[in-house]
Amino acid sequence: MNEFSQATWSNWSGFQKAYPTQILQPTNILELQRIVQDYPKIRVVGAGHSFTPLVCTDALLLSLDRIAGVESSDIDRCQSTIYAGTRLYNLDQHLHPINQALMNQGDIDQQSLAGAVSTGTHGTGADLHCISAYVEAFELLTASGEILKCSRSEHPEIFAAGRVSLGSLGVLTKITMQNRPRYKLKEHIELCRLEDMMHHIQQWKHQHRHIECFVFSYEKQVMLKTLDETDEKILPRKENFPSDDTLLTMCSELTRFFPPINPYLQKLLGVLVKPTTYVDWSSRIFPTPRNTKFNEMEYQIPVEQGIECLDEVLHTLRNYKVSTFFPLEFRFVKGDDIWLSPFYQQDSISISVHQYHKQDPRLIFDVVEPILQKYKGRPHWGKMHNITTTQLRALYPKWDDFMAVRQRLDPQAKFLNPYLEKLFLGPF
């Protein structure tokens, strides 16, 4: 077991920092059990790709990076039981030989599986769920050191609560995912008029397996990205020169130092973005490089109101002359039955707002968040928000049921840090 004393931890963007007394990396579940039994306060960390203080603690920080890999597979059901610390980018090496692939992914694959599941991480697709909804079973290490096997037939209440639980019920140790046979996707990116996108997107979402848009505050064109299943031969993604990340960093730096030029930089979109088409296996097409660091806020808006909400956000950004070069991200996610999933019983349009990591994210988030909340949006658990316990209780019909399960499993609040205590327990 690796041990780091008096450690400093920060998330990917550097915005969240913590000074845990120790960071422990157990190598197996037996070690993990002993740690949970011995320590009064614990937070578990994955890849640090959440933007909220989900894992910030001055107590013990526990990494599952060394409890990784695929434990077993069910070929007939196309399912695999995966250790919770497994990073998404490592999954294909285990799933490829058994002809399995994840149903859906987002465009970042650095997260641990447990972290992605626990926060309701998602990709896009009107008929596709967030990653948590494809969990068929999991094992949960509780505060007492007991391991519970949870599924729709075993401990169904804990299963309904635990697929999106922010690490507050215990430590996920193994997760059984419902997968599908490996498949190739054709990625196509092109520009289209913002007006056309707003008018046709509800129709287009049914014509593609995946569809998303990148919308710039001052530009009348959007980047439209679609992914569709294909049997075509592989045409791998090419690295542009200069790379998209290089251009994004350069434009973000220029906007940071010279805010008035932001609208003119965004007008270069038509010059810099050309139609592109690539074909590859899903695990290679879903993720895109993210080397330009940022902070992010994201809300899930009821699907019928998503376009209206986006339009109001764009008008507000222009009116306030908010200084950010990053586009808004606009995606579709199908509803599910997970108690604290932002998509609980609600097909949603996901609207993400980004700010360059060297700029204060609150200057844009404080402007946009009231609009996202006005449309009854639910925040992504891993992304910045200022929603209150009272608001959350109103947005989640199963909020009190979840809290009852949490209290029963962890009466001493071993797995809560100050952030989660405020989020779950008030102030109201």
UniProtKB/TrEMBL annotation:
Alphabetized, the UniProt keywords read: FAD, Flavoprotein, Oxidoreductase
Oxidoreductase is among the record's keywords: yes
Q: GO molecular function, one example?
A: D-arabinono-1,4-lactone oxidase activity
Q: Where in the numbering of this chain does the FAD-binding PCMH-type domain appear?
A: 16-182
Q: Which PROSITE patterns match?
A: FAD_PCMH
Oxidoreductase recorded as keyword: yes
Q: Which domain of life is it from?
A: Bacteria
Gene Ontology cellular-component terms listed? membrane
Provide the protein name. FAD-binding protein
**Origin organism of this chain?**
Acinetobacter halotolerans
